[in-house]
Amino acid sequence: MRIPIIGGNWKMNKTVKEAVDMVEDLKQRVGNIQDVEIVIFPPFTALKSVGEVVKGTNIGLGAQNMYWEEEGAYTGEISPLMILDIGCRYVILGHSERRQYFKETNEEINKKLKVALSSGITPVVCVGEKIEERRRGKAKKVVEEQIKDCFKEITLEEARRIVIAYEPVWAIGTGETATPEQAEEMHLFIRNLLKDLFGEEISQSLRIQYGGSVKPANIEELMKEKDIDGALVGGASLKADSFAEIIKKTAEISKISSSLRSKNE
Ligand code: PGA
Questions:
Q1: Which atom of ligand 1 is nearest to the CA of 97?
Q2: pLDDT tens string 76-134
């Protein structure tokens, strides 16, 4: 059974105080949730303080990016060792904003992915097509290329620890979510690609999150789809109440589907 994973990507938002206040509040609201893996991705500057608040709780800590070298003359970059040292166990790689504004390529994401895996950090690898690509009927082709190129030379053992986030670029921060059917179609397509790359067992165990304008009002319909295993949430993760609501609704759906499964067994 795949445990759903809900991530909160705060992007370039929140001072240290704002971040700590939000997480204190979140901890009260979701501290007892068992059926969902919860991760927050604050900006680098708030990681240490937020890490102290979530230490020993059910809320995991992740960075929004990292470089692939461990140390050296790379002004402005942050290494895997540094994020581990500060308490991060997760990292987002290849978010579409990094691809778009910072020109990150699949090749670079592949380098980061290999280092994350060898350092014991759980990578959340983002893929997704732009609106023109979808309109031209190229969405699957683009996602296939992203998956194949980002996952080059990844071993089966390493593959088991990857989380994928399917985030159609046209749905990020726009208020326009993919319909559950559109999302499921792509998630299933990704799962089949993973089967070709890593085999049936691994493809069935990997979590594929959906991302793009997820909010309390649409999380349930998305989570009901068979191949959607959680969400990477931007805007709605900035406030404790909406993020907690998304987490609680996910936990409910996951409870219902696991009891249905045990009835059928
Ligand atoms: P959004 O962002 O929820 O604000 O659309 C999602 C993301 O970029 O991960």
A1: 8
A2: 999 999 999 999 999 999 999 999 999 999 999 999 999 999 999 999 999 999 999 99
Beta strand pairing call for 207-211 and 37-41: unpaired
The domain segmentation of the chain, as residue ranges, is 5-264
Any catalytic annotation for residue 187? no
Asked whether the predicted pLDDT for residue 177 surpasses 90, the reply is no
Mutate to test the pocket of ligand 1, among 6, 98, 232, 246 (most ligand atoms within 8 A of CB): 232
- Per-residue pLDDT at 254: 86
- 220 as an active site residue: the answer is no
Look-up of token digits 């992203």: 146
From residue 115, give the alpha-carbon distance in Å to each of 71, 111, 163, 191: 12, 6, 15, 23
Q: What percent of the chain has pLDDT over 70?
A: 98
Atom 6 of ligand 1: nearest residue by CA position: 234
CATH for 5-264, options being 1.10.3720.10, 2.40.30.10, 3.20.20.70, 3.40.50.1820: 3.20.20.70
Ligand 1 center from residue 260 Cα (angstroms): 31
Q: Which of 10, 209, 213 to mutate to test the pocket of ligand 1 (most atoms within 8 A of CB)?
A: 213
Q: How far apart are CA 146 and CA 200, in angstroms?
A: 20
Take residue 146 and report the two structure tokens written for it: 């992203």
Residue with tokens 């980002």: 150
Catalytic residue among 37, 108, 129, 167: 167
For residue range 31-71, list pLDDT tens digits in order: 999 999 999 999 999 999 999 999 999 999 999 999 999 99
pTM for this prediction: 0.96
